[in-house]
Write a structure and sequence with these properties.
With about 300 residues, this protein is of the alpha/beta class. The chain contains eleven helices and seven strands. The chain has one domain: TIM Barrel. α5 links the parallel β4 and β5. The two termini are about 35 Å apart. The N terminus is likely disordered.
């Protein structure tokens, strides 16, 4: 575990999970990607986020992805590993194992089949935070999750000593400001692909965890640095160019888009896991054009 790993901030790319035709994790490709992202200046790495296709991976595949990321990081940046399950017992077991591997933090994701009430949702995240000794980032994505975190639940979870951050992937930036207002310094906010990172930084965010940073890491770090320096005119000019990526990715499957972008850049990450589909040739051309335009 690296010094001051609890201070998470900046650009945390949501890593893809490279696979071969048989679904085996390509650890060599993932290791190279991690190394290149760190060289590009990112502030941390997040395996098994949405872009990592956690919902399509088995237990052993997930472990390999997390362990490979930690090994590749070699203590240079914090690794915040995604934990996702419909079962509290399983989520706790994942979190404990990833901490044992050497993860610096946990990204806690709730999957749900049957609807859950607030008390049950809150207990899931508390159980994960109680089980580990490293910081926990709670992740809410109402577009895909059956059970979302209300502001009241978020505020109560912020009182837990290890729940230090939230990544909110709603499209409601006002909700982020409400979280910042209600939780103050108890809960730091990371933006997602659904938000405009520069705008979130302006209202008090500490960075973003997002898949697009995998394909434009240097530009993402530059944007963060401009925001931290309060050079807002330059930041918004760069943000405007980079937003074209978000617009393109919003049209198609996100994992397919990021994997396509990385393939274009020379990383053999494979297609998105079935039953997801790879991009068509025309869709691939759209991604190629946008990447070319943003440099």
């Amino acid at each position: 575990m690296i010094p001051n790993a609890a201070d998470f901030h900046g650009v945390f790319p949501y890593l893809v999970s490279p696979t071969d035709a048989e679904g085996k994790i390509r650890t060599d490709v993932l290791g190279r990607l991690c190394d290149d992202l760190i060289t590009a200046g990112v502030h941390g790495l997040t395996p098994l986020g949405s872009t990592g296709e956690f919902a399509y991976l088995g237990r052993e595949q997930r472990k390999i992805v997390v362990q490979t990321t930690i090994d590749a990081a070699r203590g240079r940046v914090p690794v915040v590993a995604g934990v996702a399950s419909t079962s509290t017992v399983d989520a706790v077991a994942q979190a404990k194992s990833y901490q044992k591997f050497g993860a610096d933090g946990i990204l806690a994701i709730l999957e749900a089949y049957f609807p859950l009430k607030d008390a049950q949702i809150e207990s899931y995240f508390r159980a994960i935070a109680d089980a580990v000794d490293i910081p926990v980032v709670i992740y809410t994505n109402p577009q895909f999750q059956r059970s979302d975190l209300t502001l009241d639940v978020v505020a109560r979870l912020a009182e837990h000593p290890r729940i230090r951050y939230i990544k909110d992937a709603s499209t409601n930036t006002g909700r982020l400001l409400s979280i910042i207002n209600r939780c103050g310094g108890d809960l730091q906010v990371f933006a997602a692909s659904a938000h405009i990172p520069a705008a979130v930084m302006l209202i008090g965010g500490v960075g973003w965890m997002a898949g697009p940073a995998c394909v434009v890491p240097r530009q993402s770090v530059e944007l963060y640095d401009l925001c931290k320096a309060h050079r807002w005119d330059e930041a918004m000019a760069l943000q405007g160019r980079l937003w074209r990526l978000n617009e393109a990715f919003a049209r198609y499957n996100l994992a397919a888009c990021i994997k396509t972008g990385l393939t274009i850049q020379g990383y053999e990450v494979g297609d998105p896991l079935a039953p997801q589909a790879a991009l068509t040739e025309d869709e691939r051309k759209v991604i190629e054009a946008v990447l070319r335009d943003v440099g």
